[in-house]
Each structure stands twice: as structure tokens, then as C-alpha cells.
Target: MBL fold metallo-hydrolase
Amino acid sequence: MLVAVISRSHFNGLESLRVGRFQKKINTSCIVYRLGDLVVDAGPPNQWKYVQRFLKERAISRLLITHHHEDHCGNGAKIGKHFNCPVHAHPAAHKDLEQGFAVQWYRRMVWGKPERFKAEDFQPQNMTSQSGDFSLQPLHSPGHSPDMTCFIEPQRGWLFSGDVYVASRPRFLTEDENPGQEIESLRNLLKQDFQTLFCSHKGMVENGPAAIKSKLEYLLELQGEAQRLYQTGLASREISRQLLGKEEFLSLLSRGHFNKVNMIRALVHDCPVSQLHHR
Ligand SMILES: [Zn+2]
Ligand SMILES: [Zn+2]
Model:
């Protein structure tokens, strides 16, 4: 069961390493991208051995973190120490990265537990590789998490989307996600100039704008339907069953932290479930 999933790929100078622990499950592997000496995301803590081997292949000058979740920031402390490089993340992530944050047991099992570290904000002058070949522009895109940041490589039309996309038709949500904010971030992304999307879990998506658009349309439609049913007096659980089907094993495994009714509650009330008084 505890199989290491490791694969490498190259695309026009972009190198990537996919690492993870389980096979044939959604979202249980995560990708570290490398553009010359710039690294996007640190990989999950229990995959350090493979991430270190990958990063040792060439000098790295900076690590850029898309958001504070353990599959993305996990090796931030070790990379900073071993490669003596600064780590950058959105200011909304700094406290969690420095002081630690709650990681539910099912997430610890899949990814491990990250070490704490100090991160700096993104600075425009620090976002270009030393060779000058690659340059990244941060774009704050909250919703999946408050600190979520995408990176655009304007010359090549690449978008590093972190966990903004992942799937066109998500049915599950954690209590901390804010799909209302995510809808705004997806709208904002569609105004940007990019073509190829690099998702942290899905990998390369050739028609990036179409993928973002299909997720946006799905969420808007689901929100409209959920709010319409809510007006008729139905409870969130019943709406969830009608629109998304019965809860699945993931809900049980996460003790309700990651499930379908969270998606409906958050869309109906337009805020994360963690901020609602459960009823
Ligand atoms: Zn995430
Ligand atoms: Zn992730």
C-alpha cells in the first residue's frame, strides 16, 4: 500500500518531479517544478529523500511556495537549510509556516508533517532565474486557501496554478476552503494571458483557459442550483445528496473535514464552513 510514486518530466526547459505515497488515488501525489534555479513548491515532507535528490542536480537560488498546505510547503525548512536559499510565500501564509498549523491525521498519513520555517514575501526583483531564461509573476488567487498564489511565466504563457484548478468538477471540499473566493480568483485568472497550465496535482493541462473556464462554470451552476434548493427550505445535507450524490469513503476517512456537504454549505452561505455555525 505504501508505494512511492515518483516520476520525472521535461517540457521546454521546465523540469518536474512528481512524488507521493499511494497509487491510483486522486491527489496523493504532488509535483515540484523547477525552472532553472527557481523551484516552485517543496513537495510533501515524507518525500524529502526524492525531492532532495532531484534538487541536488543543479544550483537553486530560491524556493517559491504556492500555499501553506503540507504537500506544497512540506520540505520548505529542509530546502532552505540544505540549499541555503530563501523561501518565499504570500504573507497570509507566514504565520502558519512559522508557527505550524493543524494537519488532520488522514493528511499526515498521506503527506507527513511539515517542519516550521520562516518565509519572505515575493519580491519582483527575485522572480527571475539567474540565467534570465525564466521569470515568474505572482498572482494572489485565494479560495482554496487564503494565501494561494499562482505564478505566470509571461514569455511562455505558462500558469503554475498550485491547487486552484486540480479538477473541473470538484465534489468535495474541506471546511477551510472558500469557493465564493475561488470563483473570483478563477474569473481573475481568465483575464490573464496564459495558455499552458501546470497544476500541482494534475500536471500539464494544454488548454489552461478552457480548464479554468469549465471549473468556473461548474461552480457557478452548482452554486445557483444549491441556492435555489436552499430557498425551498431543503437542508444542506439533502441538497448535497440531490446535487452531488451520497457521501463517500473520503468523508468518513477525514471525519467530515473533506466532504460533499461542505461544498454545498459553503456555496449556499458564500463563506467557508469553518466560519458557519453548524445547523
Ligand atoms: Zn492545497
Ligand atoms: Zn495540494
